[in-house]
Write a structure and sequence with these properties.
- By secondary structure, this protein is mostly beta strands.
- Helices cover about 5% and strands about 40% of the residues.
- It has four helices and 33 strands.
- Strands 3, 4, 5, 6, 27, 28, 29, 30, 31 and 32 form a ten-stranded mixed sheet that branches. The chain has an eight-stranded mixed sheet with strand order 10-9-8-7-11-12-13-14. Strands 15-16-17-18 form a four-stranded antiparallel sheet, with no helix packed on it.
- Strand 13 and strand 14 form a beta hairpin.
- It is globular, with a radius of gyration of 24 Å.
Length: about 550
């Protein structure tokens, strides 16, 4: 039995191997059905994205919507990206965007020219990007050499802050289709089984690479069989590498689902059998078909990253149309992106089915369809989170339109911790479950513009601890993503003589997004900051 950082215990048989029983029933999240006796909040900001932390409340949970790009921050401009006017592309697929605290740079690995190059760019601010050829004189933008007959499909990159050796600090996975002849352009390759069931599919392989700088890569080996759009991520809470594999439902072989495989070593653990894979995730009845398209929804991908005290997941939900319809119209497929959260690293709770990021579905727009998150999902920039994502316009200089043309990169901004807020439109309160904590300083992320918030500390039975009542609390009336709560005489929690408490937050015309207790007067949360933070000098942990 494994006990996690938050006091959730995992069964001896892990990961679970579930049998598919339906195609549309929402999947269970056991830790929400059966909470631990107490919750350890020592690691990271505590987010109100579900009811895990909440004993009782009359507040209303509202989900945040990011501010999306009006224009892309990277788009096809170079010869390789313009693809001789056929399928233009300059965007991660899924690639990756990370902030490297060591070099003080945002770094992007992206798909340049459809089914062609793996390229690199970097930025000081996350908005103005320089390609590799602009950074290193005499170097092309390409970071992987073209292999004759190999056409790259999806890829994934990870900046590994915990690499055992420097040459493995950057990790990459690339899915290739291998032909006997070298086809430079996607439209000239032979049809394969995905598009033509009567065809003979090419050899398909997934290759792993390592790099010390993210520019010079060395091939390490191949994985066992995996589908295109297979990706990976790291779960630092359990020190496991997770392969997110594209598979198909055992109940209906036409339906995309995701399978899960975990390993201690990204490279040595890349050989699996079918029995090693766990059925993991899919869409369900609440993933409604597009009103105009009407197709059955499917899970195109599930990517994740550690953010503060949870694993933040992005579900890429495929709305249609099928490939053959897109071929006729020249318009991209429609993927919309939805959020999910996990506290055990496997079961993802989907507290809202609303789109987090949506395809515009507007002809002529840069983000018409086919959205994909960049691996790493988001970076932390002060009071905001930056989400990098790919979108396709379908515009092609040569064809007029093509489903795989016009790939560009957008960035969306969200309030830090702003995935969900517990809001009081008048006066209301929220009482937590029993919490085990370390430190003496209570911080909150809350918006009290025109309102107020106070906190009181309770013993596990719910009794107010003397000196820590709501009347003793110095009321918060500001909008801050990091605000220290104090009581009379600037009292902290150092005089609370027990390590397990409850907290009751009382709000009046205010919203709270997160709270945490730390020994740091500056409010260091000891949580993980996704794909990196401008605040850090090293790593991706708020220490």
């Amino acid at each position: 039995m494994e006990r996690l950082y938050n006091n959730i215990t995992l069964p001896d048989s892990w990961p679970p191997h579930y049998r598919e029983e339906t195609l549309d029933k929402p999947l269970r999240v056991p830790y929400l059905e059966n909470k631990p006796d107490y919750i350890d909040i020592s690691a990271g900001r505590q987010l109100f994205v579900d009811d895990f932390l909440i004993c009782e409340t009359d507040l209303i949970r509202e989900f945040g919507k990011p501010q999306v790009s009006e224009e892309p921050v990277l788009w096809p401009q170079t010869s390789m990206e313009l693809n001789d006017g056929y399928c233009t592309c300059a965007c991660p697929f899924n690639g990756g965007v990370f902030y490297d605290a060591q070099s003080r740079k945002f770094k992007m690995w992206y798909h340049a020219g459809w089914f062609d190059g793996s390229a690199y760019a970097e930025s000081d601010d996350g908005f103005r990007w320089k390609r590799l050829s602009q950074i290193a004189a005499g170097h092309s933008d390409r970071v992987l050499k073209h292999i004759p007959g190999y056409m790259r499909d999806g890829d994934a990159v990870w900046l590994d802050e915990y690499a055992g050796t420097p040459d493995e600090r950057y990790k990459m996975l690339v899915f290739y289709r291998c032909f006997e002849e070298d086809y430079k352009y996607y439209h000239r390759k032979p049809k394969h089984a995905h598009d033509d069931p009567s065809s003979v599919p090419p050899k398909e392989i997934t290759v792993l690479y390592k790099s010390a700088d993210g520019i010079h890569w060395e091939e390490v080996g191949t994985t066992s069989h995996s589908g295109d759009n297979t990706t990976f991520f790291y779960n630092p809470f359990r020190k496991k590498w997770i392969y997110s594999l594209r598979t198909f439902s055992e109940l209906d072989s036409r339906v995309r689902v995701r399978s899960y495989y975990e390993t201690d070593d990204f490279y040595k653990g890349s050989r699996w059998s079918k029995d090693d894979l766990s059925f993991w995730a899919r869409t369900d009845i609440y993933d409604k078909p597009d009103r105009d398209l009407g197709y059955y929804t499917q899970l195109y991908n599930l990517d994740a990253v550690a953010y503060e005290s949870v694993m933040l997941g992005i579900y890429s939900v495929f709305m249609g149309p099928p490939n053959f319809v897109c071929e006729k119209t020249g318009l991209p497929k429609i993927n919309d992106l939805k959020i999910a959260f996990s506290r055990d690293g496997f079961h993802f709770d989907r507290p809202t089915y609303e789109d987090f990021l949506s395809s515009s579905r507007k002809e002529g727009s840069w983000d018409y369809g086919y959205l994909h998150p960049a691996n790493g999902i988001c970076t932390v920039a002060g009071d905001e989170l930056y989400f990098y994502y790919s979108a396709f316009s379908g515009q092609s200089p040569h064809f007029g339109s093509h489903k795989y043309s016009g790939g560009a990169v957008g960035v969306a901004k969200l309030r830090r911790d702003g995935f969900a807020g517990m809001k009081a439109y008048s006066k209301g309160s929220l009482t937590t479950e029993i919490l085990k904590y370390q430190g003496e300083f209570l911080f909150v992320n809350a918006d009290c513009t025109g309102g107020k918030l106070s906190a009181e500390i309770l013993d596990p039975e719910g009794n107010v601890i003397p000196g820590y009542s709501g009347q003793d609390c110095i009321v918060m009336t500001e909008d801050k993503t990091k605000y220290r709560i104090t009581w009379q005489d600037k009292k902290s929690l150092k005089d609370v003589r027990q390590d397990k408490i409850r907290i009751r937050f009382t709000l009046d015309h205010a919203a709270i997004y997160a709270f945490w207790i730390t020994e740091s007067e500056e409010g260091k949360s000891h949580g993980y900051l996704a794909a990196g933070s401008l605040e850090l000098k090293a790593g991706n942990k708020d220490d």
